[in-house]
């Protein structure tokens, strides 16, 4: 995410910077500007870890599956 | 029942089961998807945390530290903090966002204080430690702020406070808004896959993503308006049966929009009209005037809280913080910057290359195709809901074109008009689903980029 819309072309700057400089994380850019890193850190490992977490969330079985449609509808029918 | 056994993600629900599934969906089947959607959005939002220490953070910290809105100890750190003689120092906005932000800050406070103290001790004991400059040419204010915060030993505290507030207030509330959008879209499209894809577009192809990066009252206003509207509408419940709790909750979240910001008056006004329309649209046997009363009681409670806040902090129940703040370039015209709407500001609010709503989220431009899809949209959303969206949207554009402080947005991007996003997106979503599949996918990818 590129947030410096104040300068240059404004919002289109975000497209230009992301296209030519790659993805950015605002907090990492700030830490970099504060002098916590010698060089601009790579964000790829962070993206990979988060990507894996999100993949895991969608890959695991739903903990609510046992009370899915069929059971709920069957219960509903029983009550009728 | 056999047809339902094979129901899986991506299936379009129609026919005789559709009605019953709509009733049961919130209680059971889609909860797993909603939880996953919530966590996914939360992770991505937190990952894109921005370290801006905005004015609302200061009262959040003082509330967490000593249960006070008085931010005297931070005077000089932010231009939006002003002093009132014999009363202390306050920010020039309503306190709603700070109150919400104070909750995660108060919980994380022991940890924040511990880390901050450790860093200060380490710096004090290091003879080679020198204050580094914030490395930027474009942002002299950030440079000044960082220097001042370092000298006062507040840099770590501010950074961690901003982080906890974003991760446990902004990000979860935005993720919840995405889940609410998912349920609304599911009820309208009857397709799980479409509802997921569209709600992800809502999360990441609109200013919701950009604005969730730090504590921001405008995006909170958008969420609270959406929550209130959804609680009144409840399209996922295929029944006209009303209950008192949703009405009271809708009133409370609607009222809180005014505590967040005075532009919340537009939201409260439009949602109140909708509440009455919704009430009148119910069959006579389902109507209960008590429920509608509870909605207005909820609003009244929040407004009373704001009046009490103004009275206690500033000495007068009706004058807002803006009344006491020092004059600035933009407060010269009208009442402290609220003048008659003007076309230039209206155009800038919509299309400015620095902060225009449609420049920031081109996907929302599809809303202008509404006349071509009117019949279909009325069929899916309903005429009352569409009327609400139009009143709410026009109201906000009018408000923003009258608020001279709109010109300040050039420095941080789209802000004041963000509350219309969820509602314009509802119309946009109904247009997207009418597109050919290839065009829909292509359009979605471009919008996300």
Write structural notes for this entry.
The complex is a heterodimer of chains A (80) and B (449). Helix content of chain A is 57%, strand content 0%. Chain A is built from four helices and no strands. Chain B is mainly α and 449 residues long. Chain B has one domain (26-449). Chain B is 63% helix and 2% strand. In chain B, helix 4 crosses helix 5 (96-125) and helix 10 packs parallel to helix 12. The longest helix of chain B has 35 residues, at 155-189. Chain B is globular and about 70 Å long. Chains A and B meet through helix 1, helix 2, helix 3 and helix 4 of A and helix 2 and helix 3 of B.
Secondary structure blueprint with pairings:
The complex is a heterodimer of chains A (80) and B (449).
Chain A lengths: L10 H11 L4 H8 L10 H16 L9 H11 L1
Chain B lengths: L1 H4 L11 H9 L5 H17 L9 H10 L14 E4 L3 E4 L4 H30 L14 H13 L2 H35 L2 H13 L2 H5 L5 H17 L10 H17 L3 H18 L7 H26 L6 H4 L18 H9 L5 H4 L13 H8 L1 H20 L18 H12 L4 H12 L1
Antiparallel strand pairs in B: 1-2
Give a short summary of the structure.
Chain A has 2 domains: 1-41, no CATH class; 44-80, no CATH class. Chain A contains 4 helices and no strands.
What distinguishing features does this structure have?
heterodimer; A: 80 residues; mainly alpha; 4 helices; 57% helix; B: 449 residues; two-stranded antiparallel ribbon; globular; disordered N terminus
């Amino acid at each position: 995410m590129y947030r410096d819309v104040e300068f240059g072309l404004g919002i289109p700057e975000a497209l230009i910077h992301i296209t030519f400089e790659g993805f950015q994380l605002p907090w990492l850019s700030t830490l970099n500007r504060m002098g916590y890193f010698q060089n601009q850190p790579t964000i790829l490992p962070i993206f990979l870890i988060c990507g894996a977490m999100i993949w895991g969330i969608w890959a695991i079985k739903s903990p609510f599956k046992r009370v899915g449609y069929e059971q709920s509808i069957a219960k509903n029918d029983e009550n009728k | 029942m056999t047809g339902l056994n094979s129901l899986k993600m991506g299936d379009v629900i129609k026919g005789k089961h559709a009605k019953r599934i709509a009733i049961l969906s919130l209680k059971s089947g889609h909860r797993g998807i909603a939880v996953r959607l919530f966590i996914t959005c939360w992770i991505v939002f937190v990952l894109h945390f921005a370290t801006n220490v905005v004015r609302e953070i200061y009262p959040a910290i003082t509330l967490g530290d000593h249960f006070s809105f008085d931010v005297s100890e931070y005077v000089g750190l932010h231009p939006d903090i002003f002093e009132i003689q014999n009363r202390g120092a306050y920010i020039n906005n309503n306190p709603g966002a700070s109150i919400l932000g104070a909750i995660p800050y108060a919980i994380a406070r022991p940890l924040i204080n511990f880390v901050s103290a450790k860093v200060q001790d380490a710096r004090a004991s290091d003879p080679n430690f020198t204050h580094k400059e914030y490395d930027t040419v474009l942002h002299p204010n950030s440079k000044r702020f960082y220097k001042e915060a370092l000298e006062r030993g507040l840099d770590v505290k501010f950074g961690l406070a901003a982080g906890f507030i974003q991760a446990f207030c902004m990000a979860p509330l935005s993720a919840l808004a995405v889940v609410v959008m998912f349920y609304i879209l599911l009820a309208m499209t009857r397709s799980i896959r479409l509802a997921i894809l569209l709600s992800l577009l809502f999360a990441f192809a609109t200013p919701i993503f950009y604005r969730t990066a730090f504590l921001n009252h405008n995006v909170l206003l958008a969420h609270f308006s959406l929550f209130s509207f959804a609680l009144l509408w409840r399209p996922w419940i295929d029944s006209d049966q009303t209950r008192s709790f949703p009405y009271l909750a809708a009133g409370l979240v609607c009222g809180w929009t005014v505590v967040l910001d005075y532009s919340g008056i537009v939201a409260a006004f439009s949602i109140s009209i909708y509440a009455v329309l919704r009430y009148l649209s119910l069959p006579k046997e389902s109507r209960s005037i008590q429920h509608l009363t509870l909605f207005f009681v909820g609003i009244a409670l929040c407004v009373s809280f704001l009046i009490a806040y103004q009275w206690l902090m500033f000495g007068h129940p009706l004058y807002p913080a803006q009344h006491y703040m020092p004059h600035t370039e933009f407060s010269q015209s009208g009442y402290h910057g609220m003048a008659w709407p003007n076309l230039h500001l209206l155009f800038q609010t919509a299309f400015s290359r620095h902060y225009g709503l449609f420049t920031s989220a081109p996907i929302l431009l599809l809303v202008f195709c509404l006349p071509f899809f009117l019949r279909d949209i009325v069929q899916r959303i309903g005429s009352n809901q569409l009327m609400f969206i139009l009143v709410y949207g026009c109201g906000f554009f009018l408000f923003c074109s009258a608020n001279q402080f709109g010109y300040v947005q050039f420095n941080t991007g789209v802000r004041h008009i963000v509350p219309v996003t969820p509602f314009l997106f509802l119309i946009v979503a109904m247009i997207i689903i009418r597109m050919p599949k290839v065009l829909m996918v292509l359009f979605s990818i471009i919008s996300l980029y």
